[in-house]
Amino acid sequence: MPNLKDLKNRIASVQSTRKITSAMKMVAASKLRRAQEQAEASGPYAERMGRMLSSLAANVQDSGNGPKLMTGTGADQVHLLVVISSDRGLCGAFNGSIVREAKRQIVRLQGEGKTVKLLTVGRKGRDQLKREFASLIVESYEDVGRRRLGFSDADMVATKVLSMFDAGEFDVCSVIFNKFKSAISQVVTVQQLIPFAVATEAAEAAGAEAKAMYEFEPDEEQILAELLPRNLSIQIYRALLESAASEQGARMTAMDNATRNAGDMINKLTITYNRTRQAYITKELIEIISGAEAL
Amino acid sequence: MADKVEFELVSPEKLLKSQPVDMVVVPGSEGDFGVLAGHSPMISTVRPGVIDVYEGDRVVDRVFVAGGFAEVTEARCTVLAEEAVALTDLDRATVEKQIKDLSEDVDDSKSDAERAAAESKLAVARAKLDALTQSSAH
């Protein structure tokens, strides 16, 4: 028969766990709202940048000698993967699915005989990838945007990527992150950053009108040479924001489930506790009665 | 002047301003340019400097930007700024201190890349100081 005191302790501990998980859920919910607002606020810049890029790209493509960031190095040998994960755990499958996708990509690329390099953002992703692919990790960042994710954080990552690109350390760069779909669903997304693929349809549509329209000052190539690194920062910034919102969404869902499970467990334990107590009482009664009868 | 031009100032973190104005003067990298309604479409890079927003003949708003891009169409002027601060929020002493710190950074920098990064920051800080000097001279 289970010990009454143990059961009581067990119930108390599950109750405090439930308190923690439900508090974490609330915190995640409020952080999620902030992260979403931030993601929305960055929309206008990215959208206008995209518009300028596509009209510029349409002009430069004709001349046939665009900057390397757009046309690529001409090779496809070394791939750099930027893996964005979180610093903290307790957010369900968030980090697990990122790492799984990263591994899949690494295995696929290596299977094709390509060299893979990794740049990780976030502690969890780095720790998990380090077990198998420690030699591939060239750089890792932690505590990115711990207080509040700023553009400077993205700029820092982008600067590193650019300096590696300028040094010819890789040919193709992709970023792997969780795209925020809703609080309960995040989609692992792989997006190619270098060479930058301008959405072709938009470029053609914009190109047709832009070619006749815009004047450039200084010329297209120079503007593009400045715009592309900036665009890289923006793309990374967007990915970081999406990932931050997804993380909070995933944590909220995970904590919601945990709170519910703790509740179920408390109910079950309470029933067991009550039954056991009843059993003890009955047993004692029987003992007293049979003792009295024996006299 | 009946026609107004829609002025938008956007930083990566948010949309800072979106309002119809009579004229904006943008510090383009090849010289300042004023944008009125019906300006011919163009795209230009922006150097660190001050954007003046005109309402009638008066300057109603002065914003410092640390470089970026400007897209002008007939009805709209969009500035994508890397950093934007209202001129009234800039403090002379802070800026002077920044310049001093950054000049030291330039001297201390070990590699070319480091030096270039510090120098570009210094240029931004200097432009801030220029902007302040000019505005106090007015």
Keywords, separated by commas or semicolons:
heterodimer; A: Pyruvate Kinase, Chain: A, domain 1; five-stranded mixed β-sheet; 8 helices; B: alpha+beta; ATP Synthase, domain 1; eight-stranded mixed β-sheet; 2 helices; 8 strands; globular; membrane (chain B); coiled coil (chain B); cell membrane (chain B); hydrogen ion transport (chain B); ATPsynth_dsu/esu_N (chain B)
CATH C-level name of chain A:
Alpha Beta
Question: Based on DSSP secondary structure assignment, what is the total number of beta strands of chain B?
Answer: 8
Q: Largest sheet of chain A, if any?
A: 5 strands, mixed
CATH architecture of chain A: 3-Layer(aba) Sandwich
Number of domain modules of chain A: 1
Shape of chain B: globular
Elements of chain A, N to C (H/E)? HHHEHEHEHEEHEH
Give the spatial strand order of the biggest sheet of chain A: 3-2-1-4-5
Cα-to-Cα separation, first versus last residue of chain A:
29 Å
User: Count of helices of chain A?
Assistant: 8
Q: What's the helix-strand series of chain B?
A: EEEEEEEEHH
The CATH homologous superfamily of chain A? ATP synthase, F1 complex, gamma subunit
Work out the oligomeric state of the chains in this entry.
heterodimer
Can you tell me about this structure?
- The complex is a heterodimer of chains A (295) and B (138).
- Chain A is 67% helix and 15% strand.
- A 5-stranded mixed β-sheet of chain A has the order 3-2-1-4-5, sandwiched between helices.
- By secondary structure, chain A is of the alpha/beta class.
- The model of chain A has no long low-confidence stretch (mean pLDDT 86).
- Chain A has helices spanning 4-41, 43-63, 68-71, 94-111, 123-133, 151-166, 200-213, 220-294; strands spanning 78-84, 115-121, 137-141, 172-182, 185-194, 215-217.
- Chain A contains 8 helices and 6 strands.
- In chain A, strand 4 (172-182) and strand 5 (185-194) form a beta hairpin.
- With 138 residues, chain B is α+β, with helices and mostly antiparallel strands.
- Chain B folds into 2 domains: 5-87, ATP Synthase, domain 1 (Sandwich); 91-137.
- The mean pLDDT of chain B is 84.
- The chains are: A alpha/beta (295), B alpha+beta (138).
- The A-B interface holds A 38, 41-42, 44-45, 48-49, 51-52, 55-56, 150-151, 154, 163, 213-218, 222-223, 226-227, 230, 233-234, 237 and B 8, 10-15, 28-30, 40-45, 69, 71, 73, 78, 80, 82, 113.
